[in-house]
């Protein structure tokens, strides 16, 4: 029996999809625990590329059961598209995919309110997928849950009550036209017909599986610095991508967690707004974006790029309890003569003891850098740690020491085979 959590240790887009796919060959169950279709987990198998927004990245392994946990917010259209895409690729889901009856739905008014909010003064640079407004309704206890689909009369009543309120808001505050209640009800009923066979009490399912000594991987979306409690608020997502969220988002108790695996990109990227101390605005930044193909898997937006920030990753290690790390996209750095790594922040000439999560402090923080010589050679086909150039080994050992974890894998390309296991 083992329960491992895979967390993004920066601002998301660390390459969790590839790692979860890789680790899935050794587990029985993979469960997503938070977020929604704002995530875009990319997996490359041969010449084929899959991008998962909601379905766990273990689905490409025939023997793995995949669960969408209670902490996830589900956009019906996005889920149906993903199910269809997998079926077209000959991947059977019945009996392999289970959706929590307690997961919340993203309704059309959530997406609309997300885009209205983004056009106002408090822009965050969201993915526009309705994530924030859906979690707002969850915590305001007005959300529509998967379980509500099972009782049509209650469902219709809840949608009508919610729509009365949302239409008032849309019309009177935002001067937007009202949404049609019957259309939304019909969409939900249609969605229910299509997903009914996947709905279950996933918390009970997971805890039964633990009693049967099964091994489980809990897949986080986004990254620790986008966590609504521990991230760079307000430029965060509306859920808890940190490891604590894995327990509340699945119903697996903290006492059952055996390992926390942090995914660390060999440099840093961020999508959307918010402070980013090691961001590069020069040729190196452009080079990272180009070679690393740094465009959002969900929105296609260009990602902001910068050097690796071990001060930030060390913070992430602490709040997540990371004991193993997977370093991804190391191959992207092969094209640099010199590489920098941030080890500390200074404000007014004084080094900070703790990572600052306030916008005011973080935007003033000046990175303190350590310089490394690049290795300038292609490492994308190397499968053995010993075969890496010594400059790359030095870079990796420095990261492990500065961040305080052991490195278990190094990814040197998007394919499963482009991985070094230590
Ligand atoms: P939301 O999650 O769509 O509300 O967006 C809030 C912030 O999180 C924005 O800065 C997004 O760009 C960022 N974000 C959300 N999901 C992801 C992701 O999967 N990868 C990277 N950034 C994300």
Quickly list its features:
32% helix; 422 residues; Adenylosuccinate Synthetase, subunit A, domain 2; ten-stranded mixed beta sheet; globular; Adenylosuccinate Synthetase, Chain A, domain 1; single chain; alpha/beta; Adenylosuccinate Synthetase, Chain A, domain 3; binds inosinic acid
What are the SSEs and their pairings?
Blueprint: E1 2-8, H1 16-24, E2 29-32, E3 41-45, E4 48-52, E5 65-68, E6 73-74, H2 76-88, E7 97-100, E8 104-105, H3 108-118, H4 131-139, H5 152-173, H6 181-195, E9 199-200, H7 202-211, E10 215-219, H8 244-248, E11 259-265, E12 268-270, H9 283-291, E13 304-306, E14 308-309, H10 310-320, E15 324-328, E16 338-347, E17 350-351, H11 359-364, E18 366-373, H12 390-403, E19 406-411, E20 419-421
The structure holds inosinic acid.
- Structural class per helix/strand content? alpha/beta
Q: Ranges with pLDDT <50 over ≥5 residues?
A: none
So what's the CATH class of the largest domain? Alpha Beta
Specify Rg, calculated over alpha carbons: 22 Å
Give the integer mean of the pLDDT values. 96
The number of domains = 3
CATH topology of the largest domain: Adenylosuccinate Synthetase, Chain A, domain 1
Strand content: 15-25%
Largest sheet strand order: 9-7-5-2-10-1-11-15-19-20
Write the CATH homologous superfamily of the largest domain: Adenylosuccinate Synthetase, subunit A, domain 1
CATH structural architecture of the largest domain: 3-Layer(aba) Sandwich
Number of discrete helical segments: 12
**Straight-line distance between termini:** 22 Å
Count all strands and give the number: 20
What's the main sheet like? Answer: 10 strands, mixed
Helix share, percent:
25-40%
Shape descriptor reads globular
């Amino acid at each position: 029996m083992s329960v491992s959590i895979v967390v993004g240790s920066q601002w998301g887009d660390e390459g969790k999809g590839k790692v979860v796919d890789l680790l899935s060959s050794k587990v029985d169950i993979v469960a997503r625990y938070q977020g929604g279709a704002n995530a875009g987990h990319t997996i490359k198998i041969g010449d084929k590329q899959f991008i998962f927004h909601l379905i766990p990245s273990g689905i490409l392994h025939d023997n793995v059961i995949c669960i969408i946990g209670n902490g996830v917010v589900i956009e019906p259209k996005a889920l149906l598209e993903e199910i269809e895409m997998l079926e077209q690729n000959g991947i059977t889901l019945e009996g392999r995919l289970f959706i929590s009856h307690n997961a919340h739905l993203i309704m059309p008014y959530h997406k609309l309110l997300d885009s209205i909010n983004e056009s106002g003064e408090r822009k965050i640079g969201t993915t526009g997928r309705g994530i924030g407004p859906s979690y707002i309704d969850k915590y305001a206890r007005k959300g529509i849950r998967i379980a509500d689909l099972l009782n049509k009369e209650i469902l219709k009543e809840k949608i009508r009550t919610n729509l009365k309120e949302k239409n008032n808001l849309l019309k009177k505050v935002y001067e937007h036209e009202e949404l049609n209640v019957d259309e939304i009800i019909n969409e939900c009923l249609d969605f229910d017909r299509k997903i009914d066979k996947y709905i279950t009490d996933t918390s009970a399912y997971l805890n039964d599986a633990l009693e049967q000594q099964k091994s489980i991987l809990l897949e986080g979306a986004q990254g620790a610095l986008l966590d609504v409690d521990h991230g760079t608020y307000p430029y965060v997502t509306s859920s808890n991508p940190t490891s604590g969220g894995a327990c509340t988002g699945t119903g697996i108790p903290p006492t059952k967690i055996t390992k926390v695996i942090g995914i660390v990109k060999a440099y840093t990227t961020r999508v959307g707004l918010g402070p980013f101390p090691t961001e590069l605005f020069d040729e190196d930044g452009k080079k990272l974006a180009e070679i690393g193909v740094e465009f959002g898997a969900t929105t296609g937006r260009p990602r902001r790029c910068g050097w690796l920030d071990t001060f930030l990753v060390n913070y992430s290690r602490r709040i997540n309890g990371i004991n193993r790390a997977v370093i991804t996209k190391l191959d992207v750095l092969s094209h640099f003569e010199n590489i920098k790594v941030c080890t500390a922040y200074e404000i007014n000439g004084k080094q900070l003891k703790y990572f600052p999560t306030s916008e005011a402090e973080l935007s003033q923080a000046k990175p303190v850098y350590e310089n490394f010589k690049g290795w300038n050679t292609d490492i994308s086909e190397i499968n053995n740690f010993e075969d890496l150039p010594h400059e790359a080994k030095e870079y990796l050992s420095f990261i492990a020491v500065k961040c305080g974890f052991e490195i278990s894998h190094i990814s040197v390309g998007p394919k499963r085979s482009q991985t070094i296991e230590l």
